[in-house]
């Protein structure tokens, strides 16, 4: 007996036990509704997806080709369509996640209107988007299963037992659209208590993995903006602890914490770290401060700050803003210390924000980290803030120049030009872009590749193309040829938008509730039948 049939049998017994009052309840209909709503709470989702992510991390440790990927999605519908597309094209959602980008929440989901990525949006928007994404993914489950149930009914009506058995197998082995979300909590939106409270809401909404960065909360900047300010390790570790306590309180003992360091591009700190003895974390943090060693109190001006470092008195350089400056060229060393410290104090994965996508640069840092923590691995931002074409063409240019290859036909400063698109250099650069994720997973310890805001850009690009055609000479053909015809021929399920929005699910329920008296929307006059 299949699992589906067992569920029906159990519900039949429950209904029978209730007597005549439940006589109108159809056990198979109730079983279908149960299967279409596998996850009852966000915590159910967090537990399920944390198990998936932990298994994927172990698989990557054994074989670096088993890396994972995600795209950032700013709306539940976008996340839903992404997972539907993945199942359609690859047959499984294995090793495919969702990324929840603080940047896109700020730009697209704030009630204040579009905001820069500086933690100025409502913190409640973060768990709200997690809940929305999972609502749409669960609806994708209900929609696909509803189609299988209708196939089963049709097979039974045709007395096609082989077909019915085939559909039952699909129902019993149905793969959910619900996948892990790596969710951005920025710098924690306040102190450690504020971080804990927000982390709880995010976990309750379904997040199994929370990414937190070591910037000052009230000075937070996008990782690809200037003016980033980091905090001493003790402050950051308190927030890592806060997130872990939130996971444990809610029973998600294997929740994942992604510790992000912005130190590579952050040249400033807001405070001097507390230190109790030479060589402790505070002392190491302060050792990167830029400043001048002084000999006596006469070298101190009004308002100056002095610390003891390396057995001498150091007067750190202080800006008009009150911020302190790090030594030039100390970024890589600070990143390595940040990462080792985070892993040794409860983080599970690392995120190193870089200024360019360069496997060698990332590998240099990761190899140093792995000397201390051998299984260290990264979540990496394949960022749209990088000019991928120019970066990789310049990398090839530099590699060829170092190898003594003739590069006289190329101008390094103009390699973005379309004039170079069909050249040997450009083709080699494209090959390196194509294999970047596999190369970086193998050589630089990257377990998870994500793109923070790709669907922001695809929405803008597709809308520009449609507007250009529809409002231009093409008129309605701009939509038909550019959108609908492609949807039909590419098998985009959303072409039946009534079905996608839940019309058929609602019809099923009406029939369960009212039987033959149900007024359904999917009859012969529904224009969606034109797409059958």
Automatic annotation (TrEMBL):
Enzymatic reactions: D-threo-isocitrate = glyoxylate + succinate
GO BP: any one term: carboxylic acid metabolic process
Cofactor binding note: Can also use Mn(2+) ion.
Database matches in Pfam families: ICL
Keyword line: Lyase, Magnesium, Metal-binding
Cofactor: Mg(2+)
Molecular-function GO term, any one: metal ion binding
Active site: 222 (proton acceptor)
Residues that, per the record, bind Mg(2+): 184
Protein name, UniProt field: Isocitrate lyase
